[in-house]
Structures are given as structure tokens and as C-alpha cells.
Design goal:
The protein has seven helices and seven strands; from the N terminus they run E-H-E-H-E-E-H-E-H-E-H-H-E-H. The protein is of the alpha/beta class. The chain has a single domain (about 5-180), classed as Rossmann fold (3-Layer(aba) Sandwich), CATH 3.40.50.450. The chain has a seven-stranded parallel sheet, sandwiched between helices. It is globular and about 45 Å long. About 40% of the residues are buried.
Length: about 200
């Protein structure tokens, strides 16, 4: 993996370990020579991850819709390797996916859940064959991961697809697991180039 997309909250949350872990993930990416691709905001956990990467000498690419540029207090590009301004949230995700070799969720809200779940769904459908993970610090994603397990138990998600999501509480261990991850065989092949 050369570049990792990180989805994270635009708020820091009430537990200081979230921001510490976000910075640690950014630093770990920089140590490994990996580019951090993220939502482009300098606030919250997304800002902490980018600050950690930049402080450690890493390359950071932000992708932000023009409508959120002011609200999320986007970097002006000076503190980033590159800031890409797009028109919509859909374009943002597509561009982030293009630039990345994998996807990780840090703690966050609806946007973070939606973003990582969409990337997991894309992996399930074969739109990409890239690893998806969650930094499950302080058990933040226990409920979501438990819901995935419930979906398997209730026959709503194939057991093989549950392996599309890697979770670890430590960023370095998560990156190790993602580097070793192998995609499960596709159950069906769809031609996404025609859509």
C-alpha cells in the first residue's frame, strides 16, 4: 500500500485517546512512507491524523467539497502536500478511492460510518479489491462490528464477506494486518466499466 484513505470525525470527541490515536495513525503512515488521503479539514480527528502525518514528514492529500471548505475549516494547501477541491460528496469519495490503496475509519459520526460502509460495499461488489479497516480504539466500533456479526448470524451477510473488514485498536497492528490482507474470492463478476 502506498496511500491510505482515512475517514474520521470532524469533531475530536470527548475522549482524548481518539485524537492521540488519530495522530498516531498519521505518524505510522509517515514512518511507512505511505500517503495519507483524507477529507481535507484541519479540525477534529481528521485534522489530528493529518497533523500527525505532516509532523512526521509524511505526504498528505486532502479532498474536500467546495461547500465544506469553510465549514470544516479546510487547510489552504500550505500545510498539505495537496488540497483537491471537488463539487460534491460523491465526487469526494470517488476521488479519495482513486487515490488510495485501502480505507480506514477512525472514530466519527454518520459521515464516517457511511464512508467506510460504502467502501466495504464496493469491496463486496468487486468495484475495488482494497482492504478496509477500523481503528477500534477504546472499543469505539464494537457496536458496528457486532452488527456485522449479527448480520452474518441472521443470514443477511455472507460469512466470507465479514472478512472484508479488519479491526484493531492499535494503528500499527491495523496497518500490518491490512498490508497482509488478501481479498476473498469474488462470488460474482460484474463489469463496472460499463456503468
Amino acid at each position: 500500500m502506498k496511500a491510505l484513505c482515512v475517514f474520521a470525525g470532524s469533531n475530536a470527541g470527548t475522549n482524548p485517546i481518539y485524537a492521540e490515536t488519530a495522530r498516531a495513525l498519521g505518524e505510522a503512515l509517515a514512518r511507512r512512507g505511505m500517503t495519507l488521503v483524507f477529507g481535507g479539514g484541519r479540525v477534529g480527528l481528521m485534522g489530528a491524523a493529518s497533523q500527525g502525518a505532516r509532523a512526521a514528514g509524511g505526504k498528505v492529500i486532502g479532498v474536500i467539497p467546495s461547500a465544506l471548505q469553510r465549514k470544516e475549516l479546510a487547510y489552504d494547501g500550505v500545510d498539505l502536500t495537496e488540497l483537491i477541491v471537488v463539487r460534491s460528496m460523491h465526487e469526494r469519495k470517488a476521488r479519495m478511492a482513486e487515490l488510495s490503496d485501502g480505507f480506514v475509519a477512525l472514530p466519527g459520526g454518520f459521515g464516517t460510518f457511511e464512508e467506510i460502509c460504502e467502501m466495504i460495499t464496493w469491496a463486496q461488489l468487486g468495484i475495488h479489491r482494497k482492504p478496509c479497516g477500523a481503528v477500534n480504539v477504546a472499543g469505539y466500533f464494537d457496536g458496528l462490528l457486532g452488527q456485522f456479526d449479527r448480520a452474518v448470524a441472521d443470514g443477511l451477510l455472507r460469512a466470507g464477506h465479514r472478512g472484508l473488514v479488519v479491526a484493531e485498536s492499535d494503528p500499527d497492528r491495523l496497518l500490518d494486518h491490512m498490508a497482509a490482507w488478501q481479498p476473498p474470492p469474488l462470488e460474482f463478476h460484474l463489469d463496472w466499466s460499463a456503468t
